[in-house]
Amino acid sequence: MSLRSPLGKVLGLGSAKSGASHWWSQRVTAVALALLGVWFIGSLVCLDSFEYGAVTAWMGGPVNATLLSLFVATLAYHSQLGVQVVIEDYVHGTLKTVSIVLSNFLHVVVGALGVVSVLRVAFGSVA
Amino acid sequence: MAKRDKPLVRPLSPHLGIYRPQYTSMLSILHRITGVALSVGSLLLVYWLLAAASGPARYAESQEFFTSLWAQIAIAAWVFSFCYHFLNGIRHLVWDTGRGFDLKVARKSGYAVLIGALILTASLGYWFLIRAGGAT
Hints:
- The structure holds two protein chains of two kinds.
- By secondary structure, chain A is mainly alpha-helical.
- Chain A is 79% helix and 0% strand.
- In chain A, helix 2 packs across helix 4 and helix 4 packs antiparallel against helix 5.
- Chain B is 72% helix and 0% strand.
- In chain B, helix 1 packs antiparallel against helix 2, helix 1 packs across helix 3 and helix 3 runs antiparallel to helix 4.
- The chains are: A mainly alpha, B mainly alpha.
- The interface between A and B is medium-sized, with 35 and 35 residues.
C-alpha cells in the first residue's frame, strides 16, 4: 500500500525515481573520457604541427578517427548530463524544461558535427 | 488544477551570504565551473574539427582565429579547466568507491588536485607555446 497521499501524487511530490541511470552514465562516461582525454592530449602533444596537412593526416588514420569520434561523442554526452544537472539546480519551472530541451538539442548537434567532421576527413571527401 | 497559482513565499535560511569560503566548497564549485567552461570550450574544439573537414582554405581561416590573443587566452583557460576537472573528477570517482572522505585525506587530495592541475597546465602551455611557436 502506497504511503503517498492522493494530493501528493497529483502535485507530483516525492521521489523522481529515475536519477540512478543518469548518475551511472555520468560515471561511466567520466572514466571513458579520462582514458580518451589522455589519448587526445597526448596526440596533440605529439603532433608535428597544427598545419592542415599534419592535422588531417593524423585525423584520417583509422585508429585516430575512431578514437577521436568516440572522444567527441562521449564528451557531448557527459557534457549534456552535467549541464542538465546544473540547469536543474539553478533554473525552475517551465524555463527549466525549455532550457534542458534546448541544451539536449545543442549537445546532439555539436556532437554530430564533431563526429561527421572526423569521418569526412577519414573517408576522404574533403574539398 | 495541478499546481498552486501563486506559491506561498516563505523565508529562506541564509546561505551564500553567511558561509565562509572553504577549500571543500571552493574546490567543489570550481569543478562545476570548469565543467561548464569545458562544455562551452567544446564548441571551439568542434569548430576546429569542422574547419579541418572543410578544406585548406577554411582551415587557414580557423588558424587565424586560433592564433589571435583572445583565442589563446580561451585555450589556456580551457586547458586549465580540462586538467582541473580531469584530476578532480578522478578524486570524485575515488569518493564514489567510498574512499578518501577522511578530513585529512580530503584536504590533501584537494590541494594535490589543484596544484597538479596548475603544474599540468603550465607544462602543456609551455610545450605548445615553445614548440608550436605560439600557434595552436
